[in-house]
Specification:
Elements (H helix, E strand, L loop, with lengths): L1 H39 L2 H8 L1 H4 L14 H12 L7 E5 L6 E7 L7 H4 L2 E7 L6 E6 L4 H11 L4 H26 L4 H8 L9 H28 L4 H11 L25 H12 L5 E5 L13 E6 L8 E6 L6 E5 L6 H14 L5 H35 L1
């Protein structure tokens, strides 16, 4: 029995030292990542307020009018915006009262920092009935995108900058688990003290700080682990693979539809092929929120597209419920659909990862949780440092 207790004490001491050393090593990084994460949470809500006059085109009697075809709108956008780069894709809302969004987006993978890596990232709100550009937003230099890329890669090249954030978050996951181990009380009496704040007769700030670190850390550790692991999903492929394998019931092969490709001759492609595709999507998904169509132009990071894929977003606040459709890009014929009902649980979890990470999975309630947990994660390195500093100061005073 004594040997078991000694082993437990040694294990807890080692865990405590690692928790301390790692905390001092990555504390400031975790603080920074957590604060930028908290700032990003309500991006859609804030932008929705700031852009409300452009999200809806306000075209008079639009119900009785025909939209201009997509290629015509693309040309009109190019004429009005006058960018040297071609338009990349268009977001088409199913609600006819809403504006189209055309996007300029280029990715230079050889650049070493964010501002050169993305030469342009702009969104253009357009009235689909008149072709008038309502507003152009420079997303690349916008507040939320800079916050996102600070959070993601410290504004460095995303391919390797994500390692500089991913490794500290991986260590933070260990710290959350080790924190629970250190918190775990030896007996019932100790458990009562650690389950909630008992500050009635406590005036010492060190004790209050200690309780804040331990009690809040314990209660929010599960949420913090979820947000950390879903963040690691973007940094490490093995996390992506692990999530898919676990939730798909052991499947190791992600569904591959690259064999479904355009067969019709290019002569069948016309100015209205994309409109034919758009009409088909709207017919199939009349209750969807919006869908995206790549305009098929050449770009800086151009690579082989195995098929012409159209992404359908079913919900306004979340991406996890989505469909993927494959069309023949010459004839506009629908070749394949992949809806939420067709996906295994592993695919659904992969699709839901972003929404879980930013708290959008169930709308505003989960965003509020994400915001609070992000702030709490930012507080843990601060309260942890104060515990260490207080003990260190006490030791120096004693000696």
């Amino acid at each position: 029995m004594r040997k078991t207790k000694k082993k437990e004490n040694k294990f807890k001491k080692l865990t405590g030292k690692l928790h301390l050393w790692f905390g001092l090593l990555i504390g400031s990084i975790v603080f920074f990542i957590s604060i930028t994460g908290a700032l990003y949470v309500f991006k859609d809500e804030i932008e929705g307020i700031n852009r409300k006059e452009y999200i809806h085109h306000n075209e008079p009697d639009y119900q009785n009018k025909e939209k201009l075809n997509i290629r015509t709108l693309e040309k009109m956008v190019q004429q009005q915006v006058k960018e040297k780069y071609p338009v990349h894709w268009v977001n088409i809302p199913v609600d006819r009262s809403m504006s189209y969004q055309f996007f300029y987006f280029e990715h230079n993978q050889k650049a070493w920092h964010y501002f050169d890596e993305y030469p342009i990232y702009k969104s253009v709100y357009v009235n689909p009935y008149s072709g008038k550009v309502l507003q152009v937003y420079d997303e690349k230099n916008g507040f939320f995108n800079i916050v996102k890329m600070l959070h993601w890669s410290f504004l460095l090249n995303s391919a390797w900058g994500k390692w500089l954030t991913g490794i500290p978050v991986l260590i933070f996951v260990f710290m959350l688990i080790s924190g629970i181990i250190l918190w775990w009380p030896k007996n019932k009496a100790a458990r009562k003290q650690r389950l909630w704040f008992k500050w009635k007769n406590i005036k010492n700030w060190k004790r209050k700080n200690y309780d804040l670190h331990n009690i809040l850390g314990f209660y929010f550790s599960v949420f913090a682990l979820i947000f950390s692991i879903t963040g690691l999903f973007y940094a490490f492929f093995f996390i992506q693979a692990m999530i898919y394998v676990v939730f798909s019931g052991g499947k190791t092969q992600y569904p591959d539809f690259s064999h479904i490709t355009t067969k019709a001759p290019i002569e069948l492609r016309t100015e209205t092929t994309l409109d034919k595709i758009a009409q088909k999507v709207e017919t199939l998904y009349p209750n969807a929120y919006a869908f995206s169509i790549d305009l098929g132009n050449d770009h800086l990071d151009d690579h082989e597209h195995p098929n012409f894929d159209v992404y359908v977003k079913h919900l306004s606040y979340s991406y996890h419920k989505s469909s993927s459709l494959i069309f023949d890009e010459n004839s506009g014929e629908l070749l394949h659909t992949h809806d939420p009902k067709d996906k295994n649980l592993g695919e659904k979890m992969v699709a839901a990862n972003y929404d879980i990470h930013v708290g959008a999975i169930f709308g505003l309630p989960t965003k509020i949780i994400a915001f609070i947990v992000s702030l709490l994660c930012a507080s843990l390195p601060v309260t942890g440092f104060m515990i260490w500093y207080g003990r260190r100061k006490k030791t120096k005073t004693t000696t």
